[in-house]
Each structure stands twice: as C-alpha cells, then as structure tokens.
Amino acid sequence: MAKTKNGKNKRLSTLIFAESILIAYVCYAAFFMVKLADVFAPSFAAQHIFPLIIFTLFIVLSQLAVGLYEPKLRETFRGIIRRIFVAQGLAFFAMAVFTELFLTHVLIHSYYLVVCILMTILSCSLFRFFVIRFGALGLAQTRIVILGAGERASVIENRMRRASDRKGFELIGFIPIPGDNIELGVKKEPILHVNIDDSFKEFIAENDIDEIVIAADQRRGTLPIEVLFDCRLQGTQITDLLDFMERETGQILVNLMYPSWLIYSGGFNSQNYVRQISDYTLNFCLASLVLFFVWPFMLLTALAIYLDDGRKTGASIFYKQIRVGKDGENFGIYKFRSMGVDAEKNGAQWASKNDARVTRIGGFIRKYRLDELPQLYNVFRGDMSFVGPRPERPEFVEQLNKEVPFYNQRHNVKPGLAGWAQLNYPYGASVKDAMEKLKFDLYYVKHQSFLLDILVLIRTVEVVLFGKGQ
Fold first, then answer.
1. pLDDT in the model for residue 358
2. What are the chain's domains?
C-alpha cells in the first residue's frame, strides 16, 4: 500500500513540476506576444523574473485549489476544462491585486495579464488532453475491482481485452458474489476470493483501491449495501457497470441497460430553442465553408458517374432516398449514386461491405465518402447536422424499433453527415450491427457537445484522407 501511494505521490509531483515549467514558459512567452501586438510594450528584462515566478505560483496554487491535482480526481475532459477556467480566473484576480499593491515599480504592459491567462488556459488544456489521452505519467489510471464475476461482469473481459482498452485503469480482479452466473462468467481474469464483510474495507484500504465497479448479475439481496456505503464514505468511488463502460469505451450497453438507469443517468440534455438556432447557424457556416473547397471534387464525381454508366443507362448521377430524421420525421436525403440503376429491384436491402450492386466508380467514392457530399444540401435545409447518428431508412427503422431496445432514442437529435458510431464501429449490415452502432449513437445523444462534435469532425477528416470509409 505504501509503495502504491508513494508511486501516486511521485506522479502527482511530476505533474505539478511539469505544469509549473509549462506555465512559467507561457508567462515568459506572453511578454513576446504582447511585444508583437504593441512595439512600445516593455521587453523582458531581469526585473520581470520575480513577477514571472509569482505569477506561476499563483496559477499553480489556483489549480491546486480547484482540485486539478487531486489524486482521485475522476472528471471528464470538459470538467477539467471548466476547472482550468475557474483556476485561471482566480489566478488573474490574485495577480491583478498583487501587481497593483507590490509591483507598481515594475514595467508591465496592461494587456500582459490577459494574454498570459489566455495562453495558460490553452496550454494547460492541451497538456491535460495529451496526459489523459495517452496515459502520460500514469495519472489517468485508477486501481479498480469488479464486484461480480458472472455474465454481466464478463462484458469487461470480452470487450476490453487489449491493453489499450485499459490504459485508464488498473484492474486488480473480479470478486464473485452470490447470484452470479459463473458458467457464463469471467474465465481468464484474476478472481479474488474476498469476504464481503467488515474485512472488505481493510482489503480496499490495503490494496489502495480507487473504485469499485458493481457488475453483479443479481442485485436484490446480494449487494453488501452497508459495506459499500462505508467504502464510499472513505472516498472510494462506487460505479455501476453501465457507467463504467460508458466512460471507458464511449458507448452505452443497450443490451444491459435498464429503464431506471436511463431515467436517473445524467446527460440527455434537451435541445432548447437557443441551441437549435446556434446549431443551425454553425452548421450553415460550416457547410458553406466545406462547399467552397469541395465543389470541384463534386463536379469531377458527377462527371465520373455520368461517364461510367449514366451515359449508357440515362440514370441520374444523384440518388434520393427517404430517411428518418429528428423526432422520427421522414425527409429526402441526397447522395451521388454509387450503385447500379436496378440495385433495389427486389425492395429495400441492407448495404454490405463489398456489395455487388456497387459500380466501379461507386466503390471509390464510397471509400472516400465523396458520395455523401450532396448531403450538404440537407444541412442547408436543416434536415441534418454535420455530426449526429447516421439516418436510416423507414423500412429498417420499423424493424429495428421492434428488435433493438431503445433504438428510437437515437432520433432525439438531428442525423448527421458524420457520426460517433461510424468512427468506432466497422461497416454493419444486420440487426446485430445496428445494436452495436446504437451503443455509440446513444453515447453521442447523451454527451452531445461542441467539443465532441469537433472530435468527430477531426477524426472524420482522417477517415476521408486515408480512405477508411465504407
């Protein structure tokens, strides 16, 4: 236990030291940024070294005050950004007062503090992003145990087998409890035979466990509520399996979801009128910008389709299809035609990988997502957003609503050109695939935000540039 705590303290000390160096450099660089904006601003000199040290100290202490150096901080990246903003606000106030009282004899430009704070917010946010994203310094890792070793707990074993899936935590083991379906349970993970009584608290303390994940097959009458309550009071995080998987994998396990979790779970914010207006304005501007750059590719794509088979068959280069949009309302989606003219002579069919109905040009434009470009028109009309669940056909939606639980909830937001599910799940053409994609779609519906949209768009650019589309 002492060894583990010493390791954590060392990692935190390394974080504080690294951020202190970063902040000091930013405070130093701010002098030159101000100088670029105003040639009459004072240049960095020896008299500025003491203020630079004080400013760095204020910022680090402010970040300490808002919990950014808390060993057991379990916060989303958005939450960390909010804390960074609050910390910089506190630091700005302290620095302004200190400068006014004690540094009146030092020449500091009036814009310096503002530039310094803005640069610090940006640099600390980027630094924390890479620390969390790549598990640098081991700060993102928490030590966890799974309470349960049956069928429900086996989801972790089956879906998080790779080391890259577990970079955010260190799994100590699974603890079987009464009611677990052992036959369909955990097979290859460490099983901990620990009594769930008062001694369990000692086990948690001795092994420095940060989090207990509840993954019991049967909860009623089997969970040690009083023991878990005591552990929670001592600072150990208690997390439901659904919340744990959502946090670590970016998906919601629809097949394990129960209505009460959905009701009490955070997120699923409704889109109010102001947000709808701002979303449309942003999507309109983004669609205009994209259209400005891609219209030559659209012309070339249209010409290629015409020369490939449009000239012989007289078929249109475009393809209009009815899809289901927000609140279940149907709309017409527009795409460049990538299949033959008789592709659906036998009725609606799932598109599949290496689909024989796809033309020679169709295979290329689907790979690089060029067939989706006419949907910019749908964005202009307000039928779609740039980011959201991909719209599905009414025939399939009717079937999936019957066979996939909570499927209709993906229609709570506008469909999009790019989606979280498309980035995280390979091409699918079945009810089972629809279930898997829904796990990511519901995650997006629950966590929709500007930052998540930016992440999806950035990763979609990678898909387009490197031909990873389906």
1. 83
2. 2-138 (no CATH), 142-249 (3.40.50.20), 273-341+353-465 (no CATH)
